[in-house]
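Researcher: Here's a chain I'd like modeled. Treat it as a single chain, no partners, no ligands.
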Amino acid sequence: MTGSETGHDGPNDCAALAERAQSQLSKGRLDAADADFLRVHAADPLHRETWLGRLEVARKRKDATACLRLADEAVGVLPGDQGIAEAAGRALIDLHCFDEAVALLDAAIRRQSRPKDALVLAHAVALRRAGDHEAARRLHDALLERNPKGIVTWLSLVQGLIAQGEIGEALAQCEAGLAANPGALRLRRLQADVLRRSGRRGEGIEILEHLRRERPADHGTGLALAAMLREAGRLDAAEQLYRTLLSEAPDSRPALDGCVELADARGDRAGAMALLEEAMSSGPARPAWLLQMASLALRSEDFPRARASLDRLSGSVARLDDGQLASLMTLADRAQRAKLVATVIRHVGGRDGPIPPELARAMLKSAHHAGDEALQHRLELALAERVAAPMRDAFRVRAARLCRGPVEALALLREISGPVRTPTQAAGLGEALTEAGRSKVAVRYLRLCHRRWPDTPALRRRLMQAYVRSGETEEARQWLDTLDRGRTHAEIDGLRLLLAMETGQMAEAARLIRAQIANGQRGAGDLSLLRALLALGRLEDAEAETVAIKTAPGQSRKLASQFGILHLGALVSELRLYEDQRRRRPGKAPPVDLVRTHYFAAKEVIDAWQTVHPWDARPAAPSTVPRRIVQYWNRTEVPASIRAIMESWRKVPGWHYTLFDRGSALRWLRDTYGAEHVRAFKLANHVAEESDFLRLCLLLADGGIYADADDLLTGTPEALLQHGAGLVVFPEPTLGSIENNLLCAPRGHAVIARAVELSLRALLGRDNDSTWSKTGPGMLTRATALHLIEDPEAALIDTHLVPRAMLHREVHPHMALPYKSTVQYWNAQTGEVSHAVRAALSEVVGDHEAPARPRRVVGMG
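Model: Modeled as a single isolated chain. Structure tokens:
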């Protein structure tokens, strides 16, 4: 090769040019690297390192077509080079071209009389990512039979089991691998991680501490130990170790990242940003650091700094990996950099090859949030075609849940999924069943799965959630008592906390939360603890926790300054006012005028009543509630996902069903009550207050059952009424307020009459209280307490406060429905989607023709 051929002078220009290309590649200069690699290949088509370099360029560009072409060319030119075939296969895997990787690697293996372990392992990984777990396991087993000391094979096997959720089997294979390879460093580190995943973090830390003492110079062990110490809440030890590691290796990005994350965890965002600034001042600003800086600045409400960091990334979008692109989309949206969001969308949509599911979901969420159903539908179909085949079904199910709700998602999952083969799949199906209102089925299914895979924490948490949503709280308690506390103490306490919050055991909940704060599982200043303290009436502790929340590490200035006007902050102020009134007016029970105006006075009355008159100690009596069901949706056109939920009530035989919209509600109020009630309804601040007021008026006039539009009937209305004659309501288990999403009332009941009076006065008076206090559960709690005080003998017969677990046995309340995450929702947390983002999403769809979506008939039983 001469200087004239390469454009360079000297006797060894081909090697020099290849070396320069590799240098350009390492610096992210892909165009320059590719140009140099092409010059080398023009002179020497057999130059092996150049083939590897060109494959890496295509991988970093996310150019699947180029990667496939280069893989075919490279294997054709160097058919016996197993390293080339392995690199090509792994590049295809990285680009989510799993089937293509399987085919390429399978063909490469068949060409070899004795394929190398690395090539076979790449094939196993490709098979696993393509969904063929059994074939991947057979390859691993065959390799280990041939070479039991193959550390890389053991590591690949265990990592694959972790990905499948087979934590117990992963731990067993770690032990088998260590028996064949005593003291193997990487395998022992992986064993520590598997122990952590199984809920045995303490044992994992012990292994890593022992390894650190044995091999203090091993940087990877130090990083793994520091991360696990941080996760365990041992922040001082983690920080000391990260700083030691950084002093030993000043260029260690993971050690610097650990220091930054710990500073952030302690609330020292300024210190975290200073560390990043120092790192970026000594060399090129890495994209990961700019993303971290933007995130820290946004949470510090330093928007100019956040936007400056994001703007520096605007020209480097093509160099970011998929996780960084997803982060950039989120951060740019929060920083109101719509053009940057659009740039990311166009880049991802314009790339050749599969789109990773996380990026596809991020784009679909933007279309969904915009509330443009036509764009959303076309984008959903277009993206599903672009997601790699092994991940496509999971994406379609997640997309169905986002766009059409959990019932549709479950129906699709059942339609497209095959047999469940891994704990991860089992946990996903259990979650889908629970979210779709099939909680009882989920309990039975997840119990079977937990017996099969007993070392999987995700299954235990899903099972506890299913128990709670099915109302089987006593069964949940019995199941918890059977678990081995010695192995998973912290995890099982977390499950007990979930159950305590659901069953109103607030003292136990507060104890468990404080323990979690003490061992680092939770940070200081916890909203759940504040709820528990408010429920217990512990003013001093609640005030101290309020201070902790407002001054918590990392707390936003906005939340800290406005906490007093938020729901829980306002309740702390109300408890303080009530305690002051009680000190001035001591007595056995709160005075009636305080009950009328103070939530905590009403709660004190109801708590005392329930202690003396337990809900399940009443004599049986037939219900006096008319067989009538009423619901409200303010618009005439009801979204399909809402109609499906309402249908569960409308189709009940023997019950009269009426759905009101805003127009029919106004006409009914005018005809039934007159101008004053119509005016009150019109003065509602939003649809939630309209609905609150209307339901009370409907039940006062005619009685029946009122159910919110997002409450799915899974049992029978009759079962809701079996608790006795009169009003049946369900107190919320933490704060104890009387929930108003589902009410069962006879015509003219005293509690409903008082509630109408209180809400009418509040609406007409334009009270500035929250909806919860003015027309919602806070007001209904006061109305209920007044009836218990004023007519206790009647209340013993006609008022029933039933635990929420009994509601959950018949109703799945507050379904996670699509309309709640669009800008049209009354309580939407974010603003409009910009024209720039909509235009970019439309370009991704292009000319994709979306067929009309077939109407799916979904059973609710």
